[in-house]
Amino acid sequence: MITKETLPSIASLSPAVLTFLDGKLDSVDGLGRASNLVSQLQTRCNDLDQNLTDLSQRLGASLVALRFLF
Fold it and tell me: 24: which residues sit within 8 A by CB, 6+ positions away?
């Protein structure tokens, strides 16, 4: 369970994050779906991390190939 101490202060959140959370957690039903939202966000973050890793590897390979051209 997430405790109050682990949450960032509202002042530290960007307007985009606040808008997103307001849209997703706008009612008691929305609050009930919070754990599902956390799971979805974790999955999306993991996917983005993997994409970043893949792109970093491709960039590295491209730079090595480019180095041999000159």
Answer: 30, 33, 37
Confirm whether pTM is higher than 0.90: no
- 46 vs 22, 23, 53, CA distance in Å? 23, 23, 11
pLDDT tens, residue by residue, 52-70: 999 999 999 999 999 988 7
CB-count exposure of residue 25 (10 Å: 0-12, 13-18, 19+): middle
Is 20 within 8 Å of 12 (Cβ atoms)?
Answer: no
24, with CB counted inside 10 A (0-12, 13-18, 19+), is: middle
Q: Give the pLDDT confidence score for residue 44 in this predicted structure.
A: 95
